[in-house]
């Protein structure tokens, strides 16, 4: 897998920013002052409070694995914070039938003093050109606002469900699986979150690999964690004693009631029994009236496990955003659920995916070739193709929104081929 840190900064963005008296350069994370300035700018950009020395040390150590870029005023004092930040790394993205390399982008910030003069555009286009130059066929990110990234060809492709439960109304109807649930300490919680995610992420398209600091944070083990003392963990062991599921959560009193709300930070369950057992633990917990959790798959079975489904509220929202850069490499990296033979005309204002492509799927394997002269079956923007890619968005729905120009029959056949068996999921923020 490509090491993103070996890819130089994009020369076009370098030149464009230099024209604004700005230096666009890699951050050398082995230089503590450079690393600290990057992370403090990142924290400021995300409206966080000033990080403590301990947080800076822990975070910058984790950022060493990424390609970190800062934008500086030409002639800025040594130690000055960058006026903009971005970082990236290459990670496996699970797709139906396998994995594809994805250029993950994070830490996109532009300082309040330098906003709306094209710096974010230079950063994003620079990342896409860097990824394409490295031969990485797709880029991905999670977003603070859903209005920022469509202009670069990204689309919401992996929706997630935010679930809230009124436990008294919902009740519980499922049969308890064999096996048992146990409390675990935070270090064990962190270790299980990591190892089970490595399995769980291969089970649903849309998932990416996790990293240690993420699991430290979920387990309440990072310095200055806002609710470290409240984080609790349980695991599920199957009837043979194998760990198949883990859940991190906290309990907080609903003021003056001595009834409690459970906030679940993360569930990783690699079998249906594990998920049922962990849901059963949560929903039958004494003194707990409310449960909330985000980043569940939209086909989570919970509404079918309770006595009254109206006690379970499921809100679907955008979460994982994808952007195809190389159409043949991306489309041939996944398998399909039905044969299809279509010519796609892909429109891409940044050029990466622009062209006409024949997609032929036979025995679930795809062949994708440029097809300049054939009659086109589907016209769509690269963002729409990216939305469809991992099988979490419907072509019929995009057609109804005017984002995919094809007959109803062709749109339905795209859905037959592209849909994933289980709803795609991205279980983490990055
Ligand atoms: C979002 C952010 C990075 C934009 O930076 P910026 O340098 O001001 O953006 P640019 O000047 O390059 O704008 C590029 C385009 O995005 C648009 N845009 C910028 N910020 C936007 C926002 N918050 N919502 C919608 N559109 C936005 C601009 O209007 C411009 O549109 P155009 O090129 O189609 O005319 C910056 O506002 C920021 O740091 N916000 C806080 C941190 C954050 O939310 N980061 C994103 C993490 S996912």
Structural category: alpha+beta
Helix percent band = 25-40%
Query: Uncertain regions: pLDDT < 50 for 5+ in a row?
Result: none
Q: What small molecules does this complex bind?
A: coenzyme A
Termini separation comes to: 19 Å
Averaged pLDDT: 97
Q: Provide the succession of SSEs.
A: HEHHEEEHEEHEHHEEEHEEHEEEEHHEH
Instruction: Count the domains.
Output: 3
Tell me, what's the shape? globular
By CATH, the architecture of the largest domain is named 3-Layer(aba) Sandwich
CATH superfamily of the largest domain: Gcn5-related N-acetyltransferase (GNAT)
What proportion strand?
25-35%
Q: What is the fold-level CATH name, i.e. the topology of the largest domain?
A: Aminopeptidase
Q: Mind telling me the CATH class of the largest domain?
A: Alpha Beta
Tally the helices.
12
* Spatial arrangement of strands, main beta sheet: 1-2-3-4-5-12-6-11-10-9-8-7
Question: How much is the radius of gyration in Å?
Answer: 23 Å
Main sheet overview: 12 strands, mixed
- Tell me how many strands there are: 17
Give a quick precis of the structure:
With 430 residues, this protein is of the alpha+beta class.
Account of the protein in words:
Pfam families: Acetyltransf_17, Acetyltransf_9, SCP2_2. Belongs to the acetyltransferase Eis family. The active site is at 149 (proton donor), 430 (proton acceptor). By secondary structure, this protein is α+β, with helices and mostly antiparallel strands. It has 3 domains: 4-136, Gcn5-related N-acetyltransferase (GNAT) (Aminopeptidase, 3-Layer(aba) Sandwich); 160-318, Gcn5-related N-acetyltransferase (GNAT) (Aminopeptidase, 3-Layer(aba) Sandwich); 330-418, 2-Layer Sandwich (Nonspecific Lipid-transfer Protein, Chain A), CATH 3.30.1050.10. The protein has helices at 11-18, 32-45, 53-63, 119-133, 167-170, 186-203, 212-218, 272-283, 327-332, 382-388, 395-400, 408-418; strands at residues 22-26, 67-73, 84-95, 98-110, 138-142, 155-166, 180-184, 232-237, 243-254, 259-269, 288-296, 312-324, 340-347, 355-362, 365-370, 378-381, 404-405. The chain is globular and about 60 Å long. The chain starts with 10 loop residues before the first helix and ends in a 12-residue tail after the last helix. Bound molecules: coenzyme A.
